[in-house]
């Protein structure tokens, strides 16, 4: 049996894409991996990652230096100049995103990571641009909406963790500003509102057909941590009813994120599970019984249960393929 040529493999992958067996991104990834096997002297993955990290660090230093120059004098510029500069930066970053997404050279995964990073920077620049002409009370509202308007379509073009995290941040800021603008007072409505935000992000992590989110572990971690923050905010209030509600919210998010971990096997989903298990019960018991000793005892018990659960998982884990 003869070895297939790169052209034949690319043709086959194109047919699989047209038959909707593979997505274009998956086909690009497979093609890049196979070409790397055929290419003699191809750089190692570790070296490529180091070069990529160095590039990100260099870009961060350039952005940091530019910010150090511009930020102190930002308010001294005319509004039209600030708006124009922010719009130009946004368009340049979006242009870089498109170029990285559709370039025909380099590692596909590295290009997608770069495009996603450029997308979240473009969302931030768009937020700045939109906030310039807005009046003072509406800067945060308009800026967060503009960031979502850029981040969500960009994520549809280039699915990546930076853009997903940027969309989560913009949505959380937007909800907080809407609550503040509506003069909503009290911990209960704020806590429940952010619990709803966290629940929506957990839904985005659900492995259901048609789900556009490609990083379910990150979506579960972001949603679960949002729920963790909501539960803690409710518990820290000096009111028994709010403490009980916070405990229920925390337990619900811990259970939901653990279920998502079980069905997706994405380890980031365990982050809010551990945080909630270690912090929320202890905070609730300390508030209900006004005793740090009770809280410490609860942490010890929960930690022991987590150790037992981890031991059981290790001893019953089946080898891959069974």
From TrEMBL:
The protein's name: DUF2157 domain-containing protein
Ranges that cross the membrane: 53-74, 80-102, 114-134, 140-158, 188-206, 241-263, 270-289, 295-314
Phylogenetic lineage: Bacteria, Bacillati, Actinomycetota, Actinomycetes, Cryptosporangiales
Keywords recorded for this protein, A-Z: Membrane, Transmembrane, Transmembrane helix
């Amino acid at each position: 049996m003869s070895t297939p040529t790169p052209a034949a493999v690319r043709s086959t992958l194109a047919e699989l894409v047209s038959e909707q067996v593979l997505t274009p991104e998956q086909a690009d990834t497979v093609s890049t991996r196979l070409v790397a096997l055929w290419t003699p002297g191809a750089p190692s993955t570790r070296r490529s990652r180091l070069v990529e990290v160095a590039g990100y660090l260099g870009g961060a230093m350039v952005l940091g230096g530019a910010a150090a120059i511009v930020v102190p004098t930002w308010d001294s510029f005319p509004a039209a100049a600030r708006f124009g500069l922010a719009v130009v930066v946004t368009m340049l970053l979006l242009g870089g995103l498109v170029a990285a997404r559709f370039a025909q050279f380099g590692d596909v995964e590295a290009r997608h990571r770069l495009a996603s990073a450029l997308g979240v920077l473009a969302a931030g620049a768009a937020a700045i641009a939109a906030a310039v002409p807005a009046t003072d009370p509406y800067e945060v509202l308009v800026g967060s909406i503009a960031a979502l308007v850029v981040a969500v379509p960009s994520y549809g073009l280039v699915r990546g963790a930076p853009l997903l995290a940027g969309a989560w941040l913009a949505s959380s800021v937007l909800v907080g500003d809407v609550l503040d603008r509506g003069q909503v007072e009290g911990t209960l409505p704020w806590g429940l509102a952010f619990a709803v935000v966290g629940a929506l992000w957990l839904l985005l992590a659900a492995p259901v057909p048609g789900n556009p989110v490609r990083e379910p572990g990150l979506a579960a971690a972001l949603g679960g941590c949002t729920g963790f923050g909501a539960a803690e905010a409710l518990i820290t209030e000096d009111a028994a009813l709010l403490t009980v509600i916070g405990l229920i919210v925390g337990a619900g998010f811990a259970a939901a994120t653990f279920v998502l971990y079980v069905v997706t096997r994405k380890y980031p989903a365990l982050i809010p599970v551990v945080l909630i298990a270690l912090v929320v019960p202890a905070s609730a018991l300390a508030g209900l019984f006004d005793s740090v000793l009770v809280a410490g005892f609860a942490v010890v018990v929960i930690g022991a249960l987590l150790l037992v659960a981890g031991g059981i998982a290790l001893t019953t884990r089946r080898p891959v393929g069974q």
